[in-house]
Write the structure tokens for this entry.
Amino acid sequence: MGSSAILAETLPEPPLPPNSPPVIPPVSNPTATPPAALPLEMPKSLIDIQATGTVTVSGFTLDPTSPPFHSYLSVDVAPGATSQGGMIDLRGRNLQIAAGGQIAANTFGEGDAGRLQIEVLETIALSGGSVLGPSGLFAIADIPGSGDGGQLAIAAEHLIVEQGAQVLTNSFSQGAAGSIALQTNRLSLLGTSQPIELPSTLPLPDGLGPTQVTPTLLQSGMGIASQGQGGDVTINTDQLLVTDGAKITTGTFGAGDAGALSIVSKQITVAGFSPVEGPSGLFTTVDFGAAGNGGKLSIEASRLQVLDGAQIATSTAGTGRAGDLMVRSEAVHLSGQTGQGRSGLFATAIGSTGAGGNLMVNADELLITNGAALSVSNFSSESSSPIPSGQGAAGNLQVSARQTTLRDGSVVSADTVAGDRGNLLVQTDLLILRQGSRITTNATGAATGGNIDINATDYVVAVANENSDITANAVFGDGGQVNINARSVLGLAVRPALTDQSDITASSQFGVAGETRLETLDSEVRPTAEPLPQSPQGSEEVVQGCTPGGAMTGRFVESGRGGLSARPYGVLNSRDSLIDLSIPSALATADTEAMGAQSGALVEAQDWQMNEQGEVVLVAATPQDGGTRCLSWQP
């Protein structure tokens, strides 16, 4: 394979020749006034590419007579260099990077890395890799240097990263990691790499061999030696798709804090998993042994879907605290589970003493189906995970939604095995639990169960025999509290322990049981039907019509199930309308003709007729000649 490279490296300063005079730095004048406006300093090394068509960077070479090399555009800072790196400014219609090609602004020295600025009208496509590494865009701070990582800014109609290609601003040195800013209409991260086997006749340099499976990745991370701040990842796109093991992450392996991950989009779909690389997802992480804190993960979308084993999570497996996860969306749909874990939103603290982050969801509609989860905890969602449970406190979970629905064994939980309790707050108009779904703050071991607070403007609804539960149970610790405020709770019953019915419990197997408190407005709602009377109560005394004078006097009768609700705060519905009754025979006196003849009496119109002039005339008496009756209450 052929290869090519464009390099603009910042090199170390050459040593002075022997017996050279010392270099005297210029004397600065601290009282000097700078010019009112100075032009921005241009980078010392600049690659400026302005293309009307497609820019392609692709391929690598393996030659026994020379070092291996891949196609490369670079403004790197070389080992030992102290100057700041340069910038690559690339503009065109399309950009393709494949088969191990790379565009980079890295630092291997003491100077900070430069900047990649890429803007195309249509598509940026990054795909695959080689035995020399993945294809992609890089602004990395690497050993043996100590400079900070570079910045990466991308604007395109569509950015596709697939087959193990990567976009990275990691720091593996003591420097900080750079940031990533993306502005696209569509952003797609797809799948993982495929192993690359080279012919046995081609000799490989030492240290190179068949490639391993790696995820398609967009990341700003901090390595073990890192001391600075991690880079933020900011994504603004109309459509975001992450599938089949691909990942967008910020994280830390060292003392430096991870950067934040912020996504604003109309439509976000995160789906599927890889048997090797695990779930597709959006993550901020504190890895094993790391002391830095995790970054905040915030998502704002019109619609968010997490499907088929994919996950969105903040986590810690070190001593640093995990970041918070905040989601704001008109519609959130979580669905599915695999042998590797449930789909869902998670904030976890596992494997060490770091505390878990909080999880907050604000949505118009929250739908959780097919075993998916919304969870804060200090243990893995994977039932077969070898990672031990954490000893740090679990975070709190807060849901605010117009309608919250759990179906088919789905879970909303703040479960713990150690540390302080995780509490759960649900604020919703309507809460529905179906087919074995659960809301829990259960605790195992000596941990204390967390509290559950559910505030429902309308109803909390379950089916009694579907075994959907609301529980704050414990084993050796104390049970938590379950507080429910709603108009009515239907299909669930408070019980001292779990049954095969739909239960509300706050028990402890060996400790002190918790408390359950239900405050409902609609206290007359009962799960069993109530027989109705054979005839409407008081129907003989109800009349529709009025007689302002004469023998009949007006009266008002409230008949129980008529136009007034049972209580001032009750709801009027279809049963609360007045029925269409005739004039009761018991109240009939003189016939209507006689009533109309009473001098000075006002008589209610009983019918209408057309006179000879074609005019409508209201009459006091009903015609006896079979004329049309138009008033609904007439017999």
